[in-house]
UniProtKB/TrEMBL annotation:
It catalyses: a 2'-deoxyribonucleoside 5'-diphosphate + ATP = a 2'-deoxyribonucleoside 5'-triphosphate + ADP; a ribonucleoside 5'-diphosphate + ATP = a ribonucleoside 5'-triphosphate + ADP. Major role in the synthesis of nucleoside triphosphates other than ATP. The ATP gamma phosphate is transferred to the NDP beta phosphate via a ping-pong mechanism, using a phosphorylated active-site intermediate. GO terms for cellular component: cytoplasm. The lineage of its organism: Bacteria, Bacillati, Actinomycetota, Actinomycetes, Pseudonocardiales. The gene is ndk. It holds the Pfam family NDK. Belongs to the NDK family. This is Nucleoside diphosphate kinase.
Length: 136
């Protein structure tokens, strides 16, 4: 069944010129782009996006980082799109969890600067897509 997920190329990925690489891997997997926008996110949107992490020790740094420069937000569509993109991204920690061949495994070193975000469940995807692409 086709579904949608929210993908972000985070400020580190944009800064390092990896937007094309992320999009290329999404397309090679067979997923489609339903919406795409380059945007510097306001703090209020970042707080809402990461609401589940608000009590974590890294929350402040995470907000600073995600609002530090433009991100590319993409609504990605396809069969099992949520799990499929998480497979492409690799685990949250680019060294300990992400394996080579994944975006984070190939390009990341630090957990905070892990290049991309992908919704982790259908509920998160729905919530995040409403926040980033209210008109979709
Ligand atoms: P993401 O998949 O966008 O979801 C939450 C983000 O918080 C995560 O990617 C990382 O960028 C960040 N994060 C998670 N754990 C840590 C950590 N231990 N230290 C710093 N940042 C973290």
């Amino acid at each position: 069944m086709s579904e949608r997920t929210l993908v972000l190329v985070k400020p580190d990925g944009v800064q390092r010129g990896l937007v094309g690489e992320v999009i290329s891997r999404i397309e090679r997997k067979g997923l489609k782009l339903a919406a795409l926008e380059l945007r510097t996110v306001e703090r209020s949107v970042a707080e809402e996006h990461y609401a589940e992490h608000k009590d974590k020790p890294f929350f402040g740094d995470l907000l600073e980082f995600i609002t530090s420069g433009p991100v590319v937000a993409i609504a990605v569509e396809g069969v099992r799109a949520i799990a499929a993109f998480r497979q492409l991204a690799g685990g949250t920690d680019p060294v300990e969890k992400a394996t080579p061949g994944t975006l984070r495994g190939d390009y990341g070193l630090e957990t905070q600067f892990n290049l991309v975000h992908g919704s982790d469940s259908p509920e998160s995807a729905e919530r995040e897509l409403k926040l980033w692409f209210p008109d979709l």
